[in-house]
């Protein structure tokens, strides 16, 4: 019982500066298995930086992130932490997948090759098995019919679904999504959100930065509102959308809802 209540990700006092600019000021957050957390907030509030710290795409200035049994620590507290972080990052990247706004598929590889690349290169997985699994994942996102196509031959929605299959191929414990539908034409948003909804229902732990308030309200079981480098609201969609405590969140929702 105690084990099952251990957070998958635990963030303590996380701060991130770019020079003088304080982007994340003091973030504390525990994320548990199977939670779907929507992170919302105005542009520039630190949402992407937060996700990038979780995946060690950015160095932490101070504080600590525990994730998958290893820790990342701020380098302002001890410069040696950088070396330790780099070591921990190898474990973290296996456990934490990330899906970006711009898909980032390899343009000169087919859909199938894109999905197979990381398991074969990073995990040194068996090629035949990896291929079989990749086809299953493509079927899961409705893209098995396009296995031999190249990314440029696909719509944005299709590319993003392939990017999700590619992330799943690494069997991550958590997936971070950074505005996965923001670069899409409106007609393709729904198909990507549906894939994410299926993942959520299958029990995947997900942190989703999104402007899709409908998705946040319907699929997430937790909504975090960020502003100025702080998490100002953290609760159920009902609590945060219907009864925000802060004026900042009230103001934000009055503009977008
Ligand atoms: P959001 O995703 O909420 O829009 P970001 O995390 O991208 O916000 O950015 C937060 C702030 O940090 C912004 O002011 C942005 O200009 C700044 N910032 C982001 N990345 C960098 C960087 N690599 N160097 C300097 N400043 C950055
Ligand atoms: Mg962003």
UniProtKB/TrEMBL annotation:
Q: Which InterPro entries match?
A: AAA+_ATPase (IPR003593), ABC_ATPase_HisP-typ (IPR030679), ABC_transporter-like_ATP-bd (IPR003439), ABC_transporter-like_CS (IPR017871), MetN_ABC_transporter-like (IPR050086), P-loop_NTPase (IPR027417)
Cell compartments where the protein resides: Cell membrane
Keywords on this record?
Answer: ATP-binding, Cell membrane, Hydrolase, Membrane, Nucleotide-binding, Transport
Short name of one Pfam family: ABC_tran
Presence of the UniProt keyword Transport in the record = yes
Membrane topology summary:
Peripheral membrane protein
Enzyme nomenclature, EC number: 3.6.3.21
User: Which Gene Ontology terms cover its molecular function?
Assistant: ABC-type amino acid transporter activity; ATP binding; ATP hydrolysis activity
Q: Which CDD domains match?
A: ABC_HisP_GlnQ (cd03262)
The record places domain ABC transporter at: 9-253
Instruction: Name a GO CC annotation attached to this entry.
Output: plasma membrane
Q: Which domain of life is it from?
A: Bacteria
Record PANTHER family: AMINO ACID IMPORT ATP-BINDING PROTEIN, L-CYSTINE IMPORT ATP-BINDING PROTEIN TCYN
Specify the protein name: Amino acid ABC transporter ATP-binding protein
């Amino acid at each position: 019982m105690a084990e099952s209540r251990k957070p998958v990700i635990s963030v303590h006092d996380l701060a991130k500066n770019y020079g003088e600019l304080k982007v994340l000021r003091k973030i504390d957050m525990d994320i548990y298995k199977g939670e779907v957390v929507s992170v919302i907030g105005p542009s520039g509030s630190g949402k992407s930086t937060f996700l990038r710290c979780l995946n060690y795409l950015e160095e932490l200035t101070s504080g600590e992130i525990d994730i998958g049994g290893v820790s990342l620590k701020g380098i302002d507290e001890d410069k040696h932490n950088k070396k330790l972080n780099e070591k921990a990052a190898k474990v973290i990247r296996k456990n934490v997948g990330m899906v970006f706004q711009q898909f980032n598929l390899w343009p000169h590889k087919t859909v199938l090759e894109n999905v197979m690349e990381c398991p074969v290169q990073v995990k040194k997985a068996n090629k035949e098995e990896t291929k079989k699994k990749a086809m299953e994942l493509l079927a899961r996102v409705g893209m098995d019919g396009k296995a031999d196509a190249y990314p440029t031959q696909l719509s944005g929605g299709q590319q993003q679904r392939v990017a999700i299959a590619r992330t799943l191929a690494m069997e991550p414990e958590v997936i971070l999504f950074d505005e996965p539908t923001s670069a899409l034409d409106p007609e393709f948003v729904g198909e990507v959100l549906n894939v994410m909804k299926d993942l959520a229902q299958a029990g995947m732990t997900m942190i989703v930065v999104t402007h899709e308030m409908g998705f946040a309200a319907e699929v997430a079981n937790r909504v975090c509102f960020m502003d100025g480098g702080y998490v100002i609201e953290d609760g159920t969609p009902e609590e945060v959308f219907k009864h925000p405590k802060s004026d900042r969140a009230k103001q934000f929702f009055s503009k977008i809802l």
